[in-house]
Amino acid sequence: MENRNGLAVDATLTCATGTAEREAALVMLDRRERSGRITLGADKAFDVTDFVEDLRERKVTPHVAINGRISKHGVIRKTAVDRRTTRHAGYGISQILRKRIEEVFGWIKAQAGFAQVKVRGRAKAEAVFTFAIAAYNLIRLPKLLVHTRA
Predict the structure, then answer these.
(1) Could you tell me which residues are beta bridge partners of residue 63?
(2) What beta strand segments (E) does 49-135 contain?
(3) Are 3 and 103 in contact (CB under 8 A)?
(4) Against a cut of 0.70, is the pTM above it?
C-alpha cells in the first residue's frame, strides 16, 4: 500500500507458514520498478534481522515496528531496527500510517465477502483476492478525486 492515498499497489495470497508474509513482501518489492529509495512500514512480525538486512540490500528503509517483547526471564528482545532508522520523523509517521492496510483488509472481509473464501484452490482464491483489492481501489478513487478538486 502506498501511504499518500491509501491505495493497494500490490497483493499476493500466501499459505500461512510463519515466514510467508516476509517472503511475500520481498517478492513484491522485487516486482517493483526501481525508482529511488523507498520505505516499508510493517508490524512487529517483520522485526527480524534477516528480513531487515534483505530490505537494506534492496535499498528499502525498514520502518518496522519494534518487537520489544520481554521473555519469561525478563530479557527484552533485541530489535533488528537500528537508531539510524528510528531517529527520523518519517519513522514515526510510518508507524501511524502503516495501520491503514488494516482498513483494506477490513473492507475486503466485510464488504467484498472475503471473510470466508467461497472458492477452492489457491489459484482461484488468489484471483478473487486480487479482484477484491482492485475493487477496493476503485471504491477509494472517487474520495481521492474529491480531495484533489478542493
Answers:
(1) 41
(2) 60-64
(3) no
(4) yes
